[in-house]
Amino acid sequence: MEHADVNVVYSVQHQLPLVMYIGQYFFFTGLSAGSFVISVIATLLGRKEFKPIGKITALLAPCLLIIAPLNLILDLEQPLRFWHLFLFYNWTSPITYGSFLLTAYPIMGVIYAVMVYTNRQNAAKILGILGIPLAISVHGYTGFILALAKARALWNTAAMPTIFLVSAMVSGIGLVVIIAAVRWKWFDKKANAETREQDKRLILQLAQFMAYVIMLDLFLILSDILVLLTAHSDAFEAGMLILTGNFAPLFVGVEIIMGSILPMILVLGPKSRKSLTAAVVASILVNIGVYAMRFVMVIGGQTIPLS
Amino acid sequence: MAKKKRYAMVIDIRRCIACHACTVACKAEMAVPLEVNTTWLKIVEKGTYPDVRRFWIPRLCNNCTDAICARNCPTQATYKRDDGIVVVDQHRCIGCKYCIASCPYDVRYINPLKNIVQKCYFCSHRVDAGLVPACVESCPTRAMVFGDKNDSKSEVAQLLAANATVVLKKEMQTDPQVFYINADETAMSNVEEDINYYTEGALAKLRI
Amino acid sequence: MLNITRRDFLKLGAASAAVLTIESQFGPIAKAVELIEGGRSVNRTSGLPRSFLPSTCMQCPAGCGNIGYVEESRLVKIGGNTVHISNQGTLCARGQAGINALYDPDRLLTPMRRVGQRGKNNWESITWDQAYADVTQHMTAIKANPGSFVYLTENVARDNLGRRFTYSFGSPNALGAAAVYDANKLVATELTWGAAGDMPDVSHSKYILVFGANPLESNPQFVGLARRMIDGVQLNQAKLVVFDVRLTNTSTRANEAHYVNPGTYALVALSMANVIMQEGLHDAAFIEQWTNVSAAQLAQHLAQYTPERAEAETGVSALVIRRVATEFAATHPATTISDAMLSGMPNGVQNERAVMLLNIITGNIDVKGGLCMPRQYNLAEPNPAPPIPAASVLTNPPDLPLASQQSIQSAIQLIKNRKFNVGVLMTHGYNPAYSNPDTGTVEDVLKDETLIPYHIAVTPFMNETAMLADIILPETTYLEDWSAEVRSSPELVPYVSLRQPVVPPLDSAVSFFDIATQLASRIQAGMAQYFAFNSASDYVTAQISSIPGLVKAGGLDYLKQHGAWYDPKTRPNYGAYTAGGFSTPSGKIEVASSRLAAANFAALPTYEPVQDFKDLKESELVLSIYDTALQTDAKTANCMWLDEILHDNPVMINPVTAARLGIKDGDPVKVLRAAKAGEAKERSVESTAFVTEGIHPQVIAMASGVGHTAFGSVAQGEKVKMSEIDNVELKDPNLELIWWKEKGGTGVNTKQIVPAAADPIGGGQAWGSMVVTVAKA
Ligand SMILES: Nc1nc2c(c(=O)[nH]1)N[C@H]1C(S)=C(S)[C@@H](COP(=O)(O)OP(=O)(O)OC[C@H]3O[C@@H](n4cnc5c(=O)[nH]c(N)nc54)[C@H](O)[C@@H]3O)O[C@H]1N2
Ligand SMILES: Nc1nc2c(c(=O)[nH]1)N[C@H]1C(S)=C(S)[C@@H](COP(=O)(O)OP(=O)(O)OC[C@H]3O[C@@H](n4cnc5c(=O)[nH]c(N)nc54)[C@H](O)[C@@H]3O)O[C@H]1N2
Ligand code: SF4
Ligand code: SF4
Ligand code: SF4
Ligand code: SF4
Ligand code: SF4
Ligand SMILES: [Mo]
Q: Is the ipTM of this complex over 0.95?
């Protein structure tokens, strides 16, 4: 709270508990969940032209999800005790259901990838359908981790899990676009012109799809902030922190303008909408934006003094 | 049958002289390392010369009835005892720090020497041995009072019955069990300001 | 209503706590429903009781009863002793942090001899035998002129062993730091009612007036007085009115806090006295019977101090003076509290007498809840007692005829100007190179080998003074030492407290008793007879032999077990003077002091403006130096738990003043004092600005107890690597976490710029008369 005539003579503040390992972990699970969903959509649609994308993403999802928990374990003060999570689980803690999800999801992801690569379409479809809720949960729970820490006004909103999911989709699609574009440019030379044209269109479509998800993301963020600004004083502080305060450059500048609005213009704008380069640039920006968003949320959310 | 014990602390700010004895008592009792604090004073200065006053409150874990730290701890390392004291099992804690992020009062910290989470346990080891907590024992002016609030004969219960008390961030619905008599509103709220230079001392500064 | 409940409860609580604790301390822990208030400690993991020994704190002059809790011969915690009548089981931050001093990584654990130039901090370790031989050689060399031996200690009245050592050698020159502190108060009270010191009975007061003291943060009886004062204010509903130059924790707790122009307290007090006399609110009977003036005489003298005049000079409105005076006189019982910064002025004695007068004319002298005379046991001087050698210019400075306390400042000046030749100097538990005013001159004198040919420092720590020694004898800390302690009791029931080792001496540290005994036996046969005790505890036994009640209760054995003793049947004997009058020449309270008159000072309490404050220019400010609840002068700087909280002393400055000087909060600033007569150049210190509303616009304030240039790593905020500590007992991983130097610094020693200046009557240092200028650095 702002008190013009108050001098804090003495107080103690403790070190921020959660550092960027956690943000990074959120980022990677997000990417993983995003790519898994794209992969499953590709598989379900079953069209030949979607196949390459389905394959890349099927591989990406579990790979990313192996990197992600590494961040988590590195962040533990007692990493060798990580198994306590399973032995001494606590069902009221989102981390507990997270740990089980985090175990189940990559296993499922690997099996799914095997199905995709061995062309067992039906099995892949069934696994994919079963896997989507799992993927959503894996990433959604990270949103719950923040949302259920009610101490922190910036986190403690019902929109948080959804925002995390949607931004995960955004970054996941972005990553797929980048990888698909790289494949198209350098590793897909042998394919015939028509396929190449088709693939390119597909990538551009994906990028456009990303733009629509960004819109959804922006809407969610807007509503979240509006609520923050009109709720209790800490929430107002939190809103102001990211709108005009210390974290405004990252939030407004990097996340919103550079990471959301600019990419939208790039992939939807009349001049650049046909350009693969624009789509790739947009996707990179999107990922930087989402990474920034994780930073703003995790670190910024803790900088509002609790006492 | 006697009612179940429910330990609580009442801090009578009218008696507190901001002497920091409680802080140092805890440093010794709980082997609290430098850099971190289990209990400390928050002191603010309000007003304009010559109408200016200081206001302060000793801060510590509230040993909440609805302890969100315990609810969110994935390993049950943090749990509530039958007598209401919220403790951390040092051998079970994995140091995920989620409890720190969840607690609305910034009273938990990572012990930089042991790499586990610590906070105030109302000196449960002393209470179990029939002693009041170390900070309570040391308090030169008896501003801190500790006891079973379910025992109507206890000093804590009587103080609660006879005085208006406040708790930190009631709106967090954690049901804190550290009650303050005559605490100043500003000292109780989170003052958003760069921690200042001070007459009284320094602080474990915010570090990222 | 609410308070009654609380009061009744506390009474009940205190009573039951007393019963419980006496039992609990020495019997098994009761598996009772009620939790025990103190006197016990258990291991955190096993829950098993820790072994313990009661002793006496020495982190400040209050001498609270403490208990050392030990595990595997390591001191793990210090708690309060519940049977000690002053602190009653509690302990302040400094008392608890004593453990840090005991295990200070820079503790001196072997005797050291200077190598190379003095003050260059080059030393060789020597054995105790070599050290004793070295000292003996130097002492023997001055045997023909024993009076050239000078002994400096913190409180010479309490340093019985030091006095004995000095006297038995044949020198009268055992000097204490008292003059640096409360000499003016001691002299003022002694002149007025024939006893040195006072004790406000605050827990029973209904009205408490505080002048230039801060009893809720620092006081010679800190814990004992603060807890009683809070009782007085909260349970007894006493009104608390504070006059100070800045916002303190005491003034923040007050019903009214008034800012006073620096140095003008006496005028506030005297104008109040005037109002009381004019309104006829005085206790005429008491004045007639127990003072040496008549009410009419006094009223006439006071008539010059009108509230209007006071308003003009003190800044306190006449309205407030009238109201507070009337309230004070109408409310019984009432008392004043005055301390260092009231007496620590060039007009300190008169200030104290002016404030005492308020109690005198309202009949609040030595009544329940009033200003009482000190109650304290006297320890015996064990036989055989060395004769006290004839006085010297150091013990009785000719320019201070009334000063009953020796003046260390004047001693330093006399030595500097070669009016007194030192043969050997011994400093013990006293750090003048840090704590005295004008530390520059003290340092110069201590450095000069022609002035101080040989300097023995007896100290557990390498403080600023030890740095300037020729030989250092590493003494034990107070936690490894024996002594009998008596104090003016805040409960008005005298008591004795025992200091006994709670752990054995670390490494090769040796107690002062053993050092003195060893030296005495080597220096001369004549000296040895005065140190023919089997042990320090025998010496203590002899000291307490003058207290029959204690002897009957078991003497030393009782103390060893309980730590402290008071006669349980004794109640405060208010009005003790009615039996035999006051110990003054007239047998009455000397409102008009014949002794002052004889020495050509104003006999009646008089306001004497501080010369330096006259015609202050707008650019000039008054520097106030204050103690805090976290550091004691020159002593606690090596306690990391205290330093972590208070390690810095930014300059408190009023926003209006700061704006005028273009200073913003956090700016680096320079505090400069112009050169005084005889000084080559001005003195200055640099710090940062703390802009706060809580200070008089004409005053700046800085905390003392920080800014050390010696004492080692902790005091200087330096991290210590575990690998650099040789003694395993001193290894503590916390030392690697010391952070405050990096994040704010370790402050400055303000004494560097304080000029040595004494009240001409009392000889006490005038801390509060310093005029400075402040500028952005
Ligand atoms: N600016 C300013 N200066 C002041 C004051 C002030 O208010 N403002 N106050 C003045 C007053 S009132 C006083 S009394 C003096 C005090 O001045 P001093 O008497 O010099 O200071 P002390 O704090 O008593 O500590 C003296 C030394 O005792 C030693 N010591 C510490 N612990 C132990 C122990 O356990 N055993 C033994 N044997 N020695 C130990 C340490 O070496 C320490 O340096 O300072 C004066 N200086
Ligand atoms: N906690 C604690 N207790 C202590 C000590 C300690 O360091 N800390 N030291 C012990 C010793 S040795 C002593 S002598 C006593 C001293 O204890 P006190 O007598 O309390 O001495 P100070 O704190 O130095 O001064 C008291 C107050 O005087 C105020 N002051 C008021 N008017 C003036 C003025 O006109 N000029 C100036 N310059 N200041 C003014 C200051 O703001 C300060 O708060 O306490 C003893 N007890
Ligand atoms: S104050 Fe915080 S740490 Fe303590 S019990 Fe409540 S939620 Fe948990
Ligand atoms: S840090 Fe320890 S106590 Fe806290 S939530 Fe994690 S496991 Fe539980
Ligand atoms: S109750 Fe014990 S653990 Fe809690 S703050 Fe007090 S001393 Fe520390
Ligand atoms: S020990 Fe007591 S008086 Fe001192 S700061 Fe703590 S609660 Fe307040
Ligand atoms: S007031 Fe504090 S430092 Fe002084 S003797 Fe008592 S406990 Fe020790
Ligand atoms: Mo002192």
A: no
Sorted by sequence, the CB contacts under 8 Å of residue C204 that are 6+ apart come out as C232, C236, C333, C368, C369
Top mutation candidate among B12, B13, B14, B20 for ligand 6, by most atoms within 8 Å of CB? B20
Q: Which ligand is nearest to the CA of B138?
A: 6
Inform me whether the pLDDT recorded for C12 exceeds 80: no
| SS3 (DSSP) at C112 | strand
Q: Residue C540 CB: number of other CB atoms within 10 A? A: 27
**Model pTM score:** 0.93
Task: Specify the CATH class of A20-303 in words.
Answer: mainly alpha
C-beta separation of C627 from C218 below 8 A: yes
- Interface test mutation site (partner C, options A9, A13, A14, max chain C beta carbons within 10 A): A9
Where do the structural domains in chain B lie, given as residue ranges? 11-204
Q: Which residue has the higher pLDDT, B146 or B3?
A: B146
B171: closest CA of chain A, how far (Å): 10
Domain containing residue C293: 183-372
SS3 B62: coil
CATH label of the domain that carries residue C682: 2.40.40.20
CA separation for the pair C391, C763 (Å, rounded) = 17
Q: Where are the domains of chain A?
A: 20-303
Cross-chain CB nearest to B104 (options A82, A95, A306): A306
Residue C519 CA to residue C33 CA, distance in Å, equals 55
Q: What is the pLDDT of residue C19?
A: 37
Asked if B94 and A299 come within 8 Å (Cβ–Cβ), the reply is no
Is residue B46 within 8 Å of B55, Cβ to Cβ? yes
Q: How many domains does chain C have?
A: 2
Q: What is the pLDDT of residues C394-424, one digit of tens each?
A: 998 888 888 776 777 888 989 999 999 999 9
Our mutation pick for probing the ligand 5 site, out of B11, B20, B22, B26, counting the most ligand atoms within 8 A of Cβ, is: B26
Residue A15 pLDDT grade (very low, low, confident, very high; cuts 50, 70, 90): confident
Domain B11-204: CATH architecture, name and number where available: 2-Layer Sandwich (3.30)
Q: Which two tokens stand for residue B71?
A: 């609810």
* Percent over 90 (pLDDT), chain C: 83
Task: Report how far residue C414's alpha carbon sits from residue C420's, in angstroms, rounded to the nearest whole number.
Answer: 6
